[in-house]
Amino acid sequence: MPACRIASIRVLLLILPLFTACAHIRTSRAVDTQPQYELTTAAPDADVPVVRSDEVVATLPLEDVTAEEAAAFKAEAVRLVDHPDPNCRRLGDAMQAHLAGLRMYENALVRYVGPYKFYGVGHSYQSDGDWKIRIARRLNDLNPRTLDEETGTLRHEMSHTLGARERRVGEEWSARDYADRCA
Ligand SMILES: [Zn+2]
């Protein structure tokens, strides 16, 4: 099968659950959600730009998780299950439950907002009751991310399966809190 054919099938497989995700309204049951993203920038206080589902589809060919990444992510889940903080233990449980839905994409999704450049390095959404977690391997062609950085994104994105939001609300941990405090 030619590479372009494979690529178009991959894109189609990605488009379908995203269309499904957009068609549903959030309820208390396990339902589809909008994609959520980890965005990194030199100016963390800047407003986080909204990334549309179709941008993800158009620009990010997905790849399977490598053996090295899989080993690192599984080790992270095992480590967190014994963490002294109960929130981090819950995060470890979430990883055990959702690692099978994890995929990588090659380059981060770049967005410009005013003077700031953002790199979308991870996203997560729920489709048909299953969580899809995506992590970027590189910021761009010249800047690969380390396994540690990918694992930090894993903590961030997996925390969304526990209901964590991008911004802290009261005493509830944000996704960034999970990524930082469980490191
Ligand atoms: Zn997030």
Task: Please characterize this protein's 3D structure.
This protein has 183 residues and is an alpha+beta fold. It has one domain (3-25, 32-181). Helices cover 42% and strands 23% of the residues. The protein contains 6 helices and 7 strands. Strands 1, 2, 3, 4, 5, 6 and 7 form a 7-stranded mixed sheet that branches. β4 and β5 (116-127) form a beta hairpin. α1 packs antiparallel against α2 (53-59), α3 packs across α5 and α5 packs across α6 (175-181). It starts with a helix and ends with a helix. The relative contact order is 0.17. Residues 1-29 and 42-49 have low confidence and may be disordered.
Q: Which ligands are bound?
A: zinc ion
- The beta-strand count equals 7
Q: Any idea what the radius of gyration is?
A: 16 Å
User: Averaged pLDDT, please?
Assistant: 75
Q: What is the chains' assembly state?
A: single chain
**Secondary structure: helix percent:** 40-55%
Along the chain, the helix and strand elements come as HEHEHHEEEEEHH
Which band does the percent of strand residues land in?
Answer: 15-25%
Number of helices: 6
Number of domains: 1
